[in-house]
Automatic annotation (TrEMBL):
It comes from the Bacteria. InterPro entries: MazE-like. It holds the Pfam family MazE-like. This is DUF3018 family protein.
Length: 78
């Protein structure tokens, strides 16, 4: 069953919300009903979930920056 869009508020309803200190806010989210979007979201979630298992990536990053700070003032190098 497709979801319907929410109805627009009347001018009176909008005024009532503003009087209570609310403001209108529009938020766009990925449409998970779209199989392509759903597949991409799942792939990204899996990458995040298993990121800690990517030890070789962290070792590579560590090897690139191992002596990056050695020549900075206030660090061990000077």
């Amino acid at each position: 069953m497709p979801m319907a869009l929410p109805r627009e508020l009347s001018a009176e309803e909008k005024a009532e919300f503003r009087a209570k200190g609310f403001q209108r806010f529009e938020l766009w989210l990925p449409d998970l009903r779209d199989p392509t979007v759903r597949e991409q979201a799942l792939a990204e979630a899996n990458r995040m979930a298993f990121a800690d298992e990517e030890d070789d990536v962290m070792e590579w990053i560590d090897s690139l920056q191992k002596d990056m700070w050695d020549h900075e003032p206030g660090e061990g190098g000077q």
